[in-house]
Amino acid sequence: MVASDELDDRPVEDVTVASMLRARAEKIPDDDALVYGPDDRHVTYGELDATANRVANGLRERGVEPGDEVSVMASHPLTVLFAMFGANKAGAVYAPINHEYEGETLSYQLNDTAPSVLVVEDRYLDRVDAVADDLEDVPEIVVVDTGTEAESRFDTTSFASLCEASADDPHVSTSWDDPAGIVYTSGTTGLPKGVVIPNRWIFANYTAAKRALLDRDDVVHTSLPLYHIGGVYADVVAGLIAGGTVALWDRFSPTEFWDRVEEYEATSATLISVMMPWLTNPERSEDDHENTLNKVHMQPLPEDYEEVAERFGFDVVTVAFAQTETGAPVVGVIEATDGERTPASIRRGRSPEEVFEASREMGLPVVEEVNEERYMGRPREDIVEVAVLDERDERAPTGTVGELAVRPKRPGLILQEYHAKPEKTVEATRNLWFHTGDAAYRDESGDFYFVDRLGDTIRRRGENISSMQIQDAVVGMDAVSSAAAFPVPAPEGGEDRVGLAIEPAEGADLGEADVREYLDGRLPEFMRPDRLWLVESIPTTETNKMEKYKLRSELLEGSK
Q: Taking the model in full, what pTM does it have?
């Protein structure tokens, strides 16, 4: 295993979220850990650690024990991180909730997680009240004041009162195999599942490749939501592991992106799907490369990545196969440009040569170009074994498409389990492989390439959406007999839009406006259909399974 950097004495496979923050606060207490861009609010490592201690002690005073789940429904990134680090310092498990959730999507996750405490901003309190009758157990509700006038039918505690507790370290012992988080991901064939993430998954797996890129001089720019692993772990925690600074923004802005990079001299960022075409749409300028951003992760790797890197002077581009269950078992490091690089006069952090050397020491492939589209890299052979399997779970021949599968070489490197779903855990880990649900192939050089998702997952605005969750909401209408949700192509960015076909109940008078009105308040906005069709019948197999591929083809062909 690779040793942790000079800021921590323990091997990286034994580091926990709590021990990492404690070590950073002891050694670099006055360095900026976080900067919240909209308010130019700077939080040092010492302040972050002290605030986490206060929240942890406040939670413990309210009965939170190690291993308890603490759900967080907030959009302000500092609130989320104070709550997360506080929960982890108390030995509790961070269980974030997408702050756009409402209705059945919200009640489902609360019932599935069954947290002992829910930290919620007052602006979302009415959504919790609206599903109160659907909750099996009501958690203790801790309200964050954002200036929104809100009342609740429940007794509540203020988040500010948690922060009045002692700033002394609670000294709760945590281990590499203790769960740090439960992050929900869309199921390909069912409702979303809570992925239980051990501390070792974070430090020895998911953030390891990022650690090869960063040092204390780096500034990680992120506007990714902190209820997914990319924002909270790949950006925030990885930046803090390096002892660098993380610049936080509420949301991505294509018009303000480069001003934000310049304001805090950001060196690293994650660009997903539609972000890249949005950044390249403006007219090209000769000085586009004159910015501090020099290490960029692209997910997925676009076909024109070389053009993007050349234009903006990215020295290093990384790519990976990454998912909540398996972390980042496949990684690639690309020497992105032979042309203009980040000017030396404004470059911060590790040089490209230092990055490539550190990457090779970790066993990561460093390439000058990729051979084929949808390149993902090569397996992290120090921690996992990766294969492409056929329908019998035998290894597929080189070049043959099959299901990507992963198995760890040490415990704690992939998910611990699906929370409260033992049957789903057993199903996904059959034959001693974790089945990712994604189609891929391997070439003769050992490089892996993504082909497509398996099952019924829809990818929109950075979210994996379960089609079943949409269907279950729609068929609650008396006028609906059956419904099928499926992805339809978006104009740009490699993402999906939501398509929904509805078979009305016999004799029902149903219109598109009726469906949209019904879903308002029952599904978050990003899950609601972009395209909606009323059909006479939804085709099914002899075993009564919907033939979505056939339906999708007929509807999209007919709408051309």
A: 0.87
At position 381, the amino acid (one-letter code) is: E
Q: How far apart, in Å, are the Cα atoms of 322 and each of 286, 325, 330?
A: 34, 9, 7
Helix (H) or strand (E) holding 305: helix 305-312
Would you give the DSSP letter of residue 395? B
Express the helix, strand and coil content of the chain in percent, nearest 5 each: 30, 25, 40
Angle among Cα 45, 46, 51 to the nearest 5 degrees reads: 100
- Residue 466, SS3 per DSSP: strand
Task: Note whether 118 and 110 are within 8 A (CB).
Answer: yes
Q: Do residues 524 and 100 make contact, with C-beta atoms less than 8 angstroms apart?
A: yes
User: What sections of 327-466 are H helices per DSSP?
Assistant: 352-361, 422-428
CA 325 – CA 384 distance, rounded (Å): 13
pLDDT of residue 456: 64
Largest CA distance in the chain: 72
* CB distance 243 to 5 below 8 Å: yes
d(CA 525, CA 69): 27
327 conformational bin, left if phi > 0, alpha if psi -120 to 50, beta if neither: left
Per the structure block, which two tokens stand in for 474?
Answer: 């729609």
* pLDDT tier at 463, thresholds 50, 70, 90: confident
Comparing CA positions, the residue from 167, 139, 155, 147 lying closest to residue 55 is 167
pLDDT higher than 90, residue 147 = yes
Bond prior to 300 in cis (omega within 30° of 0)? yes
pLDDT for 3 equals: 38
Query: Which residues 6+ apart lie within 8 Å of 73 measured at CB?
Result: 96, 97, 99, 101, 118, 119, 120, 121, 124, 128
If DSSP codes are grouped into helix, strand and coil, which group holds residue 206? Answer: helix
The rounded mean pLDDT for the chain is 92
Closest by CA to 80, choosing from 58, 61, 55, is 55
Find residue 406's DSSP bridge partners.
386, 434
Give the whole-angstrom CA distance, residue 175 versus residue 15. 8
